[in-house]
What we know:
The chain is mainly alpha-helical.
Amino acid sequence: xxxxxxxxxxxxxxxxxxxxxxxxxxxxxxxxxxxxxxxxxxxxxxxxxxxxxxxxxxxxxxxxxxxxxxxxxxxxxxxxxxxxxxxxxxxxxxxxxxxxxxxxxxxxxxxxxxxxxxxxxxxxxxxxxxxxxxxxxxxxxxxxxxxxxxxxxxxxxxxxxxxxxxxxxxxxxxxxxxxxxxxxxxxxxxxxxxxxxxxxxxxxxxxxxxxxxxxxxxxxxxxxxxxxxxxxxxxxxxxxxxxxxxxxxxxxxxxxxxxxxxxxxxxxxxxxxxxxxxxxxxxxxxxxxxxxxxxxxxxxxxxxxxxxxxxxxxxxxxxxxxxxxxxxxxxxxxxxxxxxxxxxxxxxxxxxxxxxxxxxxxxxxxxxxxxxxxxxxxxxxxxxxxxxxxxxx
Length: 393
């Protein structure tokens, strides 16, 4: 694959994450009312998706090391598309939770193979730059998704948003079938055997470089997911915005994220991956604190959330491409297992956040703002300590 083809494949495969969550978010309050669900059950539709997404990576990663990336991508994307259509037809919130779990399982195949594909084709330094290009494409999808989701929800209802998600899955499946070859250099027949698999996971989880990068990507995504999972209720129910206006504000954060990926590519060349991370952490800190402090003072304004969100997203655009490439970098022969383990940690963090938000949202902006502030502090702590010491390895 050429670098442009690889970046496009990464953008489409990883872009299923914002399509699956962001396009659906503007419809979440509407869905809650239509199905007579509580806020806790509405959050379960996100939490179930993420639980299956995390556990699914632990399955798909070793399978991709054994049978190859391409078969796993085709199976997983077909499952994702079918589950999205099933969710659109769900007659109760319980059935919707079940379909979202299957959707998360299919999405796991796409994401874990995308990260493994990157390691198959590139060494970590070059991989970070290609990943940044792919993340720029992901950012474009993240911009379009909430705005499109808000418009679809207002025009045709929440079920239509899941039909749109199914169409996106079918489109990515067609692209993979047409343009993505097998990239695994060598298949490992023992990759799914319990003994070698557990030994591989112990080796990966105990590797200090993996720990540093996996913690960084999980902490920065923790802040982003707090915003994604909680912002629809805060913007629409607390601050009174329409779904369309909410989609536009969430899309502005995606613009900042794209800017961060462009900054990432320049800083990786000028300062190296670790130097780029150190600088990006300042944007993360500024975003988290400028959101939490006004909330502590009782300020409830859309701009007091939206502007800090953009600062945080800018830092996230620097951190995420480098940390995802760094986590699988030391494991060229076990890229699927390493990508799976890193993705599982990330999804477990997001799952916990979804459960917490279901109980914590209280009709104010404080739970959302404090959550983003906390994850900002944790991201900076990891960037300025573990990554600084171990990331250069």
